[in-house]
Amino acid sequence: MGKTIAIEESVANIPILVALLRDGDDVQRDKVVEALRDLSATTANQVVIENAGGIPPLMALVRAGSASQSEKAIGTLQNLASNPCIKEAIEVEVGAPFVALLCCSSNELKEEKSVGSMVETTAQEKEVTAVAAGMSPLVALMRGGNGPQKAAAAVALWNLALKAENQEKIATAGGIEPLVMLVRDGNDIQKEKGAGALKTLALNDENRTTIATAGGIAPLVALVHSGTDVQKQQAAAALWNLSVNDENKMAIATAGGIQPLVTLARDGNNVQKEKAAGALWNLSMRTANQDAIGMAGGIRPLVILVRDGNDAQKEHAAGALQNLSTKADIQVMIAREGGIPPLLALARDGNGAQKKLSGEAMQNLALSTENNVFIEARGIIPLLVVMARDGDGVQKQSAAEALRKLSSTPENKVAITAAGGISVLVTLLSYDNDVGKEDSVSALWNLSMNADTRTAIVKEGAIPPLVAMLQTGNNTQKAKAAGVLGALGLNSTYRAAIAEAGSIPPLVMLVRDGNETLKSHAASALWNLSARDTNQVTIAEAGGIPPLVSAGALGALASNHENRVVIAAAGGIPPLVVLLHGGGDAQKCHAAAALWNLSLRPENKAVIAAEGKTPSLLALVCGDNGIQKAISLRALLNLAVTSDNKMVVATDGGIPVILALVRDGNQDQKEHAAAALWTLSVEVDNKTVIAATGGIPLLVELARGGNDAQKENATGALWGLAVNADNKVAIAKAGGIPTLLALLHEGNVIQKENASGALWGLASNDANTVAIVVAGGIPLLMALIHDGNDVQKENASGALWVLFVNTKNRIAITDTYDIPALVTLARDGNDIHKENASGVLWTLSLNEDNKLAIKSAGAVAVLKALVRSGNDIQRENASGTLWGLSTNFDEQINERTPS
């Protein structure tokens, strides 16, 4: 248009203006639409504009013009629609709903009923509007209309959005941004209707992003915080739909949305609570939001909704708590806010969705150690058992996981068993979900740590599926199945059944070919199973010895004599020695136990010592692990039986270590340490080392105040030490003589044997001879001649012989019962008895007062028989006695000291 058109001159040019509106450029359209808007204010001009075909290009500007053009075009159409005749023409072009919106007044929007009628009309014809007129006029009306028109357009779009395919069209038409502006800057009705429209549009995934990008989240949060009741409801629902999008979860929290939603869930009306809980459900899927919900006080309102809400509220709140319960600190909060009883009730009595969500929340809560006491006391375990049995795949897996965690405490083991959980867990061993299988076998492993529960596990038929899992499971399942079978194998009753189910070959295979975890668990299972003799043979036949040698797991197998040969032949001793030096605590225990058993075979003793095992064993004896001390000490005891090894133990510094256990060890350690010293004391050089290291006072003290086994071993060691001349003095000085004599009087059989042997050794010292007699030793020794066993009689008669060599002790034995006992021993005893008894009779015969008693006891015939047929010592002693009986001249007798 080359010149400015004056309004008063434009009436005649309306057809030209309409043509420019249709075909002109943007600048021309801007001028023309403004002119037409002004011209359309009069009835005459309205008719002219309609007759000139103005309605279609005006609608084109509404749909596709600039914001200014659209606003002016709407104003023009609104003027035109005020004419009833033209209104019908506009309705034909764009539909009655749009015309109704054009004609909407402020008074109409003040009455909710009028708005509702408009919405109803719009809803009935939304398809026509969407297809024929498109979304653009409505969007334009929101941009350029007056207040009532904007609200009405929002309602129209809201209703149109109820049809899913229209949601995308509205967004494509640019409808989201003006709706966001309406929620942010509009009046109360506009905010309400805009929020409702955004709520429905947010059902579309792309629209969720578009609404957030358009800045829609902040104004919606503001409505939840301080809007009217209806605004809060619509805004909370909109945020619920928007929060399906992960980015929006963060954006809502960043915009401060969590606190007002928590407040609404606590204080709102029923619909508001439902929508707010739904939004919190979605928001709680993000870890950072979980903390924010907890800090905002969100746990308690959600718990109350689970307890007291309607069905929708319960479902939404349970969903939120299910998400929140994945976080450890919030698990505790839920329990402390009283969440467990209502969740448990909902899991038991709710509808399908409620049961699923609350049940999963309870499963999460069961994973918190702090909540175990809450959960077990409130019956979660029976619920979990039912879910593991009857639930869907996810529920079965979750319930199995929860039972696995709960099964770690003694109380829960009992509760799971009582609830029938073992049967369900055994069934799940054959489940087609690997994670569920792993949790089930883990739970059974925990349960199998209880002796009573093992019985139930076996009774429910667990052994066959466990053996099958050894063969077909993944590595984790195989390791845990081996763990359960190993635990069951602790019970001697089940070792046969486990072996008969075919477990040994796959266990051997795992020890041979598995990773370190598999080797460890399988070897442990074989260790327990090998406590049964028949299983030891089966393990060997399955080729188990070589891989077990490599794994260093041979303790129980080495208790079988044949296996000791096979283990040594398979090269088992060197790797055991390596483990003894550098393995973990359990490996050291196992290695020491295996070497202990292997050392029972004489041929293995030299091999073990040659491998340098003694220092490693001594290191374990010095260590802090009580089990390692005990086992290693026993192994040293076995090794020390051979003469060469006695020297090796001493040379490697073993004697001070062993003496330290006699002094400071526990009861078991003292017993075995004293036993080791007994064995070591046989070696001549060790006698000196033991004494020089302070062993004699310790052994005397143990012989005096220890338990029976300790006294036996201590007196045995003193017997060995008493052969050494210096040790005779040291033992007496340490109070050994009264201690040994007390054991002759009150000790058990072995104690009397060892004490009498020690006294025999001590008696060759002159001072000790007097001390023994003064302390009443002769009657105690004679009592053994009467009533002792063969060893006691040997030692007692030997000690008496040495004692009576001392002329001061050559006293008359006036008890006629004593001499006949010696004569009987000389007649009926073994060779040592005869030697010692005849020696005693010889020394006694040198006392004039004893001669008649000796003769009267029938000694002459016995002595003559020994002269005729005894060994050299017996003949010498018998001849000496006969000669002593025939003379009164003591000084003519060449006394001899027995060797």
General description of the model:
With 899 residues, the protein is mostly helical. The longest helix has 16 residues. The N terminus and C terminus are likely disordered.
Main beta sheet: strand number and arrangement?
none
Query: What portion of residues belong to β-strands?
Result: under 5%
Instruction: Flag low-confidence runs.
Output: 1-9, 105-133, 611-622, 639-648, 889-899
Q: If helices are DSSP runs of H or I spanning 4 or more residues, what is the number of helices?
A: 64
Number of strands: 0
Q: Give the overall form.
A: rod-shaped
Into which percent range does the helicity of residues fall?
Answer: over 70%
Pfam families: Arm (PF00514), Arm_2 (PF04826)
Family: Belongs to the eutherian X-chromosome-specific Armcx family.
Organism: Phytophthora kernoviae
Protein name: Armadillo repeat-containing domain-containing protein
